[in-house]
Structure formats: structure tokens, C-alpha cells
From TrEMBL:
HAMAP family documented for this protein: Phosphoketolase (MF_01403)
Protein name listed in UniProt: Probable phosphoketolase
Domain Xylulose 5-phosphate/Fructose 6-phosphate phosphoketolase N-terminal: 16-376
Database matches in InterPro entries: Phosphoketolase (IPR023962), THDP-binding (IPR029061), Transketo_C/PFOR_II (IPR009014), Xul5P/Fru6P_PKetolase (IPR005593), Xul5P/Fru6P_PKetolase_C (IPR018969), Xul5P/Fru6P_PKetolase_CS (IPR019790), Xul5P/Fru6P_PKetolase_N (IPR018970), Xul5P/Fru6P_PKetolase_ThDP_BS (IPR019789)
CDD domains the UniProt entry points to: TPP_PK (cd02011)
Record-linked PANTHER family: PHOSPHOKETOLASE-RELATED (PTHR31273:SF0)
Family, similarity comment: Belongs to the XFP family.
Domain of life: Bacteria
NCBIfam families: PRK05261.1-2, PRK05261.1-4, PRK05261.1-6
Cofactor: thiamine diphosphate
EC number from the UniProt entry: 4.1.2.-
Alphabetic keyword roster: Lyase, Thiamine pyrophosphate
Organism, as annotated: Streptomyces demainii
Listed GO MF terms: fructose-6-phosphate phosphoketolase activity; phosphoketolase activity
């Protein structure tokens, strides 16, 4: 299909003058409401002259972007109503919260969610007072804002969220306002490539609206200063056809914006019809609107002799001294009255009919579309029984499987069973096969809209596995997908999931807040599968060794975060089945992809995962009612193997030592019950770990995390944790645990050193352990492989 020419919206648009005036009235009303939220504590309709006591004591919020956002909101409403479109908007400049709140108050959706903020003078007063005020609402577009799926506090993620929302939503249009400051971030720059993965047959459409108002907080923006031909070349290079709207005269801009939106929506409809009805497979070149309006448009032109409108000074609060400076107060009143509020609101503060003439109704309103409250649309996944995928375990440690490969079979079945409903996706940065999940390709291909070569494998225009070498983009896609009512899984190398640390912060905050809002329905959890983990990155080396994402997540809201370390294939299946059923959580699962011993059969795995932490009686040597001499605990697959190997050594060489073996799957079980919903009571914890016996804990990650989680426990003075301590390199698998003192020989030495009465009578055993470590060092340097006694080890029982 030939590319459409770039055109500029112009007064040639066919809207009649009365409709343009209605759009302008709505826009002026939204601007008035936005400014009022930033400044006014009382006197919302200016029924009396402004006084200092009408002004908030702290002026917070962002005016500069609000007029542009209001313009987009106004014009999207018109095209949605006129064409009966199913549409949502992602507001990238989320700090422009006053604008989006104003739009949802005007369309009535805000008052439906919050009846006390009614669409009248009293409700307007509450709308103004609550903004950025104690006990009120944040200054950003937040979960409290109807119609939003995007916080926008941290910039960079709007376009990825928009594409995630459009995936598998063929009837949905997702407009996305991208601020020119946000456009400078790496994640946003990478997100322009998302159109190479959007399927015009099964997915909806994304309409980027690049808003160039010229400035960030204190500096010009890069894209706003590019010459237009260069900017057009950039956007065309990304695969878009730009449509320009520019100006500062309201009626001319209204006509141009209306024309641009009509042109963009017409082109989107043509591209989708061509793909869906004519079978054209060429990747579409989607439209993008480039909107240039002044920063702080319609606000004060100058303050204290300095230019404000159209400069960086309009970014936040353009008149900061209103309560103290009489001239600022007069200037604010002139500004607010310039919108002619008496023409926009009746005597009771209700929007006049012409203000709402172009506003959609019902679920078509941007503040009420159910896609922006995805739990309304969410359906449970058709999860199969685990018996079909579980590995047989006649006795512990006799067989090996790759846990993630076993999981791949389950995920493939879920993918197959959602083929017609298309509400499950797996995302990852070029690692699905590397992470042993390639069974998914039996059910679907990898999403891809570009050219294919004969050497390519598993690429498909309608695929639901998504791979792109950008963790930011994977995360953004999945968040947008989940927040619009679908399910998914993010598979990633453990060390590199840190790239999305900030993004998961924002999502956790979103979920925590959403859980307190009854009208926000629960959405499917954000599920991470972290594999290719620290202990088996011996081949890639130090740069690929970092287990700290778990620490990062466990710092966050306990009602939202969960962390699981299944020790084998069957426990991984049970954990996966659980997390795919959960709602409103961030679940982190760390599991290996290399061959791993099978410890538990399916029934045992189910029981163990339900407990979250428990004793493996078959691995220990304690008998009778007395407490053990020592507790060997493990969390993670490699630590579990080392603990069991250490338990086997103790069984052979110190059979009179009563050893208890404890395995932890759910790390939050270590927390006190009052600190986390999964936490153990004091009685539960003491029964498992004892109150005063030495506990040698082999942990997958950084050892101080276990200390932090359990510092209030009675046994904590007797707790000794081994884990990763940044001693990594390219080496053998066993040398990784030796370098970090997590190996079986060191664990036995710890038992001898910390168990009362063993230091003297077990001195020979301790020396033997030290000698084994010495032999290990010499062996790997000569042979390049691990000691045979390690490489060929299995559980003797």
C-alpha cells in the first residue's frame, strides 16, 4: 500500500463554526478547571473578587502541559462521539493531572466514581480543594483518576503502555500523548519500534500524539528544536506518517486539530480494513500527530516582567506568590476570568449544554471506558491440570529435569487454550528459547510485522510471544496488557531485569493504590520468571551475575509483592499455577533452566508450596521429640542442592548430629505475620527454625536479605546466612558456589563451627572439608571442569 502524504491540519476542515465554538467552550472550561485546581481553595466560580484566603497555602501542580492535554481531551471526545469509537488515552505527561481530572469531571465520569465531587458548584469546590492537598488526590494522573492506566510520574513509558493496551484489542483505539520531555528518554525512544510488532488484524491501533510545547522544567526539548524536515525524517524512519498541527490562535488550532484527528482516524480505519478484509500483509505506516502549542498556553504571558507563556517558566505554577503579592493575585483573577466562566457554567456550577455538546456518553467517555479499568473485562485463564506436565519422582534426587522446560509445556497449553480469546502473552528480551520455553512455539509464533528470511524461525504476524531486546519495552507492553484486562508472563535473565527497577516501582505503587479504590477492579498479576540466574551464569561471567531484583521488590508494599524460589520442576509448576490465578500482585519467581534434581513429586510439591516453607524430613537426621542440633535451611535451587549435599556429608561423617533440613519457597514467609500477609507467626517460625539452635541458611541471593527479613525472630542471633557476595567470574558451576562460600563443604564447616560441642570432636571432618575445597581449586585449573565427586553427585538418601 503506498504511503500517505504528510499534510498539515488546516482551516479546510469541514466542521461548522458552531461545532468549533462548542469545542472551544469545552477546552476553555477544562483550562479553567485545571487552573482552578492548582490555585483555588474557595470561590470556585469567582462569584466574588479573589482574596488571599481563597488561595491554597501551597501551590502545587503543573500548568504548562495542561492546555495541550485539554486540547487533546476535547478533540478526542468529538471524534469518539461522532464515530462511536471505542477509545482510551494514555497521558504521557502524567504530571498534567489537572487537565485529565478536569476532562473526567466535565464528562461526568468523575462524579459517578466520586459522588461527593458532583458536577456542580459544590463538586467543583471539592475538585479544586482536593487537588494536591492533604487527604486529597495526587498532582499526577494516578489510579484515582478515572480513565487512566498510566501514572506518568516517571516519564518514558507511555507509548509502550499504549501498545500493550492495543494488543489483542482489535476494536480499540489507543491515543497516546507523548510530551517532548518524555520523548528524550531511552524507553520512549525504543518504544517507537513497537509498531513493528502490532498486528493490524488482531490488535487495535495506537495513535501517538507528540506534543511539542518546547520546554522541560528548565531547558528546551530536543525534538521541539529539530527543523521540521529532520523531525519528519525521524518519524518516517520509525515507520509513521506525521500530521502536523501548530499554532497559538485557538480557533485556527481547533480546526487544524479536528482535521488532523479525522485524517488520522480515517487512515487507521483504511489500514485495518486493508489488512483484515484484503489480507495485505505489508506492515502499515501508522499516522502520528505532531502537535505544537505554547507551553502554558492561555496562561499569564508575563510575570514580574519576565516572559512565561511559551517558556519553561510556565512548567509548574506560573504565579507562585498569589497569597502574598497583590499584583499576582490580580493577575490570577484576570487569567481565570479570561476563560469567561459565566458562559461555561450556569449559576449552580453545572456545565452549560454547549460545553458538553461534543462529549461522548456512557462507556464511550474517556473517563468511563472499561478498558481503562481492566478488571471489569478480566476472565480467568483456562489453566490445565498439572498432572499432565509434572515429572515423576519415585525418590528424591534420582532424576534431573530442566525446570523451565517443564514449565514451557504448561505455558504452551495455556497459549493454545487462549487461541480464540487471545488474552495471554509471554514477553521477554530475545530469550524465550534460551530460557527453555520454546514449547510455546507449538502454540503460537513470535509477533513480527517486518520482512522474514528463510533462516528465520517461529516468526508470525499473529504471534503472541513477544521478543524485543528492550526490557523496558517488554515491561511496558505487559503492564498495558494487564491493566486493560488480560494475562501474561515476563521471562528474563535474572541479572538484567534490574533494567526495569523503576518501572516495577511505579507498577507496584499503582497496584497498592488501586487496591484501596473499590471502583478499580482487580487485574491479573504482573508475573516475572527470572532464570539464567546467578549460579548458572558461570559461562557468561561476572556481568551476568546479580540476584538483587528480589531485594528490590521486597522493599515494596507487602500487600502487593510476592517472591518464590521453587527448588525443582514440580514446585515450579505449582508456583506458576498459583501466580497465574492471582490478582493485583507482582510475583517474582526465580527458577533455573539447567538440569536440576527432582526432589518432590506433584502432591508433595503442592503441599510444600502451600506451606511456603517446611521441613524435609527425608533429608534430615533428627529423630524423636527433641529439637535438632542444627538446622540446615535453603531457598533456591542451587542452594537446595548444596544443603542436601551437606546433609549427606553430615549423615555419613557425623551420624550422631541431629540435622533438620528446611526448604523455603516463599521468601515472604520469613517476615512476621503482622508485616506481610504470608508471614509466619512467632510460634510457626520457632517451630520450624527453633529459638536457639544454630541455623545455617543457604540463600539464592544476597545473604543480608534473610537477616533483614528475620531480624526480629528469637533465633536470629544464631542465624548464619550464606549467599552471593559479588564473587563472580567466568568459571565452572561449582566454583561459583565455592567462591561465595555457599558450597556443601563450607556449609559442613559452618555446622561444625557453630554447633556446640562439635569443634573439637569433628576437627578431622572439618579438615577433610577444607581439603576438598583445596582439591577443587587445583582440579578446575587443570581440567576446566568440576570435581567428579561434585559433577557426578546425587542424593544417596
Amino acid at each position: 500500500m503506498p504511503d500517505a502524504p504528510t499534510t498539515t491540519g488546516s482551516p479546510g476542515s469541514g466542521l461548522a463554526d458552531d461545532r468549533i465554538r462548542a469545542l472551544d467552550a469545552h477546552w476553555r472550561a477544562a483550562n479553567y478547571l485545571a487552573a482552578g485546581q492548582i490555585y483555588l481553595l474557595a470561590n470556585p466560580l469567582l462569584t466574588e473578587p479573589l482574596r488571599p484566603d481563597h488561595i491554597k497555602p501551597r501551590l502545587l501542580g503543573h500548568w504548562g502541559t495542561s492546555p495541550g492535554l485539554n486540547l487533546v481531551h476535547t478533540h478526542l471526545g468529538r471524534v469518539i462521539k461522532e464515530r462511536d469509537l471505542d477509545a482510551i488515552c494514555v497521558w504521557g505527561p502524567g504530571h498534567g493531572g489537572p487537565a485529565v481530572l478536569a476532562g473526567s469531571w466535565l464528562d461526568g465520569s468523575y462524579s459517578e466514581v466520586y459522588p461527593d465531587v458532583s458536577r456542580d458548584a459544590a463538586g467543583m469546590a471539592r475538585l479544586f480543594r482536593q487537588f494536591s492537598f492533604p487527604g486529597g488526590v495526587p498532582s499526577h494522573v494516578a489510579p484515582e483518576t478515572p480513565g487512566s492506566i498510566h501514572e506518568g510520574g516517571e516519564l518514558g513509558y507511555s507509548l509502550a503502555h499504549a501498545y500493550g493496551a492495543a494488543l489483542d484489542n482489535p476494536g480499540l483505539l489507543v491515543a497516546c500523548v507523548i510530551g517532548d520531555g518524555e520523548a528524550e528518554t531511552g524507553p520512549l525512544a525504543g518504544s517507537w519500534h513497537a509498531n513493528k510488532f502490532l498486528d493490524p488484524v488482531h490488535d487495535g491501533a495506537v495513535l501517538p500524539i507528540l506534543h511539542l510545547n518546547g520546554y522541560k522544567i528548565a531547558n528546551p526539548t530536543v525534538l521541539a528544536r529539530l527543523p521540521r524536515p529532520e523531525l519528519d525524517e525521524l518519524l518516517r524512519g520509525y515507520g509513521h506518517e506525521p500530521i502536523h498541527v501548530a499554532g497559538d490562535e485557538p480557533f485556527e488550532v481547533h480546526r487544524a486539530m479536528a482535521h488532523a484527528l479525522d485524517q488520522a482516524v480515517d487512515r487507521i480505519a483504511l489500514l485495518q480494513r486493508t489488512a483484515r478484509e484484503e489480507g495485505v500483509a505489508q506492515r502499515p505506516r501508522w499516522p502520528v500527530i505532531v502537535l505544537r502549542t505554547p507551553k502554558g498556553w492561555t496562561g499569564p504571558e508575563e510575570v514580574d516582567g519576565l516572559p512565561v507563556e511559551g517558556t519553561w517558566r510556565a512548567h509548574q505554577v506560573p504565579l507562585p506568590g498569589v497569597r502574598e503579592n497583590p499584583e499576582h493575585l490580580r493577575q490570577l483573577e484576570r487569567w481565570l476570568r479570561s476563560y469567561r466562566p459565566e458562559e461555561l457554567f450556569d449559576g449552580d456550577g453545572r456545565p452549560r449544554p454547549h460545553v458538553l455538546a461534543e462529549v461522548p456518553e456512557g462507556d464511550r467517555r474517556l473517563g468511563a471506558n472499561p478498558h481503562a479499568n481492566g478488571g471489569l473485562l478480566l476472565r480467568s485463564l483456562p489453566l490445565p491440570g498439572l498432572e499432565r506436565y509434572a515429572v515423576p519422582v519415585d525418590k528424591p534426587g534420582a532424576t534431573l529435569h530442566e525446570p523451565t522446560r517443564v514449565l514451557g509445556g504448561l505455558l504452551a497449553k495455556v497459549m493454545e487454550d487462549t487461541d480464540t480469546r487471545r488474552d495471554f502473552r509471554v514477553v521477554g528480551p530475545d530469550e524465550t528459547a534460551s530460557n527453555r520455553l520454546e514449547a510455546l512455539y507449538q502454540a503460537t509464533g513470535k509477533a513480527w510485522q517486518e520482512a522474514t528470511l528463510p533462516t528465520d524461525e517461529h516468526l508470525g504476524r499473529h504471534g503472541r510471544v513477544m521478543e524485543v531486546l528492550s526490557e523496558h519495552l517488554c515491561q511496558g507492553w505487559l503492564e498495558g496488557y494487564l491493566l486493560t484486562g488480560r494475562h501474561g508472563l515476563f521471562s528474563c535473565y535474572e541479572a538484567f531485569v534490574h533494567i526495569v527497577d523503576s518501572m516495577v516501582n511505579q507498577h507496584i505503587k499503582w497496584l497498592k493504590t488501586s487496591r484501596s479504590l473499590p471502583w478499580r477492579r482487580p487485574v491479573a498479576s504482573l508475573n516475572y520468571l527470572l532464570t539464567s540466574h546467578v549460579w548458572r551464569q558461570d559461562h557468561n561471567g561476572f556481568s551476568h551475575q546479580d540476584p538483587g531484583f528480589v531485594d528490590h521488590v521486597l522493599n515494596k508494599s507487602p500487600e502487593v509483592v510476592r517472591v518464590y524460589l521453587p527448588p525443582d520442576a514440580n514446585t515450579l509448576l505449582c508456583v506458576a499455577d498459583h501466580i497465574l490465578r492471582t490478582r493485583d500482585y507482582v510475583n517474582v519467581v526465580v527458577a533455573g533452566k539447567q538440569p536440576c534434581f527432582d526432589w518432590l513429586d506433584l502432591d508433595q510439591a503442592r503441599a510444600h508450596c502451600a506451606r511456603g516453607a517446611g521441613t524435609w524430613d527425608w533429608a534430615g537426621t533428627e529423630t524423636g521429640a527433641r529439637e535438632p542440633d542444627v538446622v540446615l535451611a535453603a531457598a533456591g535451587d542451587v542452594p537446595t542442592q548444596e544443603v542436601l549435599a551437606a546433609a549427606g556429608i553430615l549423615r555419613r561423617h557425623l551420624p550422631d548430629v541431629a540435622v533438620r533440613v528446611v526448604n523455603v519457597v516463599d521468601m515472604t514467609r520469613l517476615l512476621p505475620k503482622e508485616e506481610h500477609p504470608h508471614g509466619m507467626t512467632e510460634h510457626e517460625f520457632d517451630a520450624l527454625f527453633t529459638r536457639d539452635r544454630p541455623v545455617i541458611f543457604a540463600y539464592h541471593g544476597y545473604p543480608w536479605l534473610v537477616h533483614r527479613l528475620s531480624y526480629r525472630r528469637a533465633v536470629h542471633p544464631h542465624l548464619h546466612v550464606r549467599g552471593y557476595k559479588e564473587a563472580g567470574t567466568t568459571t565452572t558451576p561449582f566454583d561459583m558456589v565455592v567462591r561465595n562460600d555457599l558450597d556443601r563443604y563450607r556449609l559442613v564447616m559452618d555446622v561444625i563451627d557453630r554447633t556446640p560441642g562439635l569443634a573439637v570432636r569433628a576437627a578431622a571432618v572439618r579438615q577433610r572439608m577444607q581439603d576438598a575445597r583445596t582439591r577443587h581449586h587445583a582440579w578446575i585449573r587443570e581440567h576446566g571442569t568440576d570435581l567428579p565427586e561434585v559433577a557426578e553427585w546425587s542424593w544417596a538418601g
